[in-house]
Amino acid sequence: MQVVILGSGSPLPDPNRAGPSTLVRTSAGDFLIDAGRGVLLRMSAAMAGPGGLASVLLTHLHSDHITDLNDLITMRWAMSFAPNPLRVVGPVGTAEVVAATEAMLATDIGYRLAHHDDLNWNPDTVVDEVSEGVVFEQGEVRITAAPTDHAPVHPTVAFRIDDGEASVVLAGDTIPCEGLDRLAGGADVLVHTVVRKDQIEAIGLPRLVDVLDYHSDVAQAADTAARAGVRTLVLTHMVPAPAPGAEQEWIDQASPVFGGEILVAADLMTIEVGPVAQ
Ligand SMILES: [Zn+2]
After folding, report:
1. At the top level of CATH, which class does the domain 2-273 belong to?
2. Is the pLDDT of residue 16 over 50?
């Protein structure tokens, strides 16, 4: 199994970091977790296309995690030569957001249907709203969801993808919580969004300070990784984003708490997971 960090950014525009999204390539196909700003650009760099995704998994419905869902829906439809429904798995509320996205696209859909004789079906999206338990199972691959705590954003979920002996957990945005602990136990890799408490407090802007109460800071994410006994912690969605060369500061905040491998995500960072890579 392979984990490709497509976007390591946050809501804040960054020339080097696309919005939050991760591609997990498994023996049952490619799964996209969240669809932040620029996701299709980064997918193309990773040699992945919208038509080939097995499913899209949304951790929550904050705009930075779904900004380019509309691009995904459009291009999966417009680049396919036969109906190719897109399965979207997410928390309660996902169906409403997807329906609204498709409604927003109605004008464009009309243009393209009128223009292309060989395109005579609408975008087709199948939504599964989930909160807990197995959400996909095929061959060696099993995907499990569990609730997280990103209040007042609610509900939110994390996903665990097991492929044979390999496992990765995508935490999304959350403070430390029982649901994530349960999901992450014994996983190979934990991809966790993080913020820097010290830097945000030093900046002191109220709207930025607000984000502290519903995200994990670096030490909290490291503590979750330690409790779960994961092998590798990947820090992503960093706020504020580290300047090039400053990544070690983030590792230094995590390493006193977590003794495993710590990676600071960059766009298109690729992590091999499981026995094949060892
Ligand atoms: Zn969020």
Report:
1. alpha beta
2. yes
